[in-house]
Design brief:
It is a single chain. The protein contains twelve helices and nine strands. It is of the alpha/beta class. Helix 10 packs across helix 11 (about 245-255). The model has no long low-confidence stretch (mean pLDDT about 95).
Amino acid sequence: MYTNNQPLRDQVGKKGFLIAAHRGTCGGNVVQNTCLAYENALLHGADMIEVDAAMTTDGVFFAFHNGEEPLELGVEQDIRTMTSEEVEQMETLNCLREKSGQKVERLEYVLERFRGRCLINIDRSWFYWKEIIAFLERMNMNDQILLKSGAEESLLGQLEESGSSLMYMPIMKTMEEWEAVTRHHVNVAAAELIFRELDSPFIRPEFIAGLKKAGIAPWVNAIDLNSSIVLSGGLSDNLAIREGFDKAWGKLMELGFEIIQTDWPGLLNTYRNQKER
């Protein structure tokens, strides 16, 4: 394991902590994982956009979270079993399940649109790990891209073998997974820590301090995916909105997290600005 992550460290130094917008900022006629959603996120004060990646049968990457086809496209077919031509013929649906006038966009187009403008977290791309690593290297945006995956040995091994210098973030639920990461020569710039309870070893001061000392940014998901999945010990977006920002986002800041992913970057940015003052 090594760290070569100055672009990310520079941004943390300027902001104190970074705001990552989950799939952009969507709602109304703004569809998730589109350039419109990402532009909206930046207007709301996000420092980083989270972009899901899906590859079609002919090897084209799109900004899309597979599994969302019924909601976003009105079809039951997995986008990964479609051709790029089939994908580009469809129109996305908005939050009212009406046609939005927007299309699923090629990942290359999205990345070019935001070249030099913000940090970009590439998510859900581990199904085609070798291909996505090669694709991102060709984009020559290593100062912006933060690639993430679960801490499986196979993924870590392939990333190490690729020789890629992309900034990398493992998704971890156990200390054993962290130990697996440390055994591989990969550029760990951040660490996504998943914890159900507030007695998790991941949020002990010594562990967080150790990450920071190594130049690794601790990342937490404040998002609420549904009523059963717990990502941040209950210190979530819903709690922040329902009971006050201090009780959720404030606690995550106190724990030392340097990147907070949220569905509400505008509110979190307002809170960050208030804390700075």
